[in-house]
Amino acid sequence: MTELDQAAxxxxxxxxxxxxxxxxxxxxxxxxYLQAMIDGTIPAPPIASHINLEMVSVAPGVANMAAxxxxxxxxxxxxxxxxxxxxLLDSVCGCAVQSTLPAGVAYTSLDLSVSFLRGMTSExxxxxxxxxxxxxxxxxxxxxxxxxxxxGRVLATATSTCLVFTP
Length: 167
Description:
alpha+beta, 6-stranded antiparallel beta sheet, 6 strands
């Protein structure tokens, strides 16, 4: 057996069908919908299971999340894949926008620009992210976000533009 012959590890991911919650989201203000997710009355979206994501708090124009990278998020060079950070940043940006929306209005990401400032590994532990709407709008909203480690070091930043629309 060589060093490269290792036992495979497994990770089980569970989720519920997100379509009923997405329909319910349109009947509530974005802030109320996200708070219901925090309270556990509405299930988290499926992506949360993939990156150990949790919604921590929301306020108008601000969303706070946390996620914990593990070895299942590694890239070929032995660190957490940039997609982990990008997914967390996209999520926190979108939810910051959603927190500003009235019932019946939706959003989707138009762009996401990420800057990776420090690497992550499974030893990094739980990271936190905050998204802040810098300019709300009836057709587009602009957002900035950052991810920090437990020591408060900034690991990645992002800016995003979200399309605001009535489905």
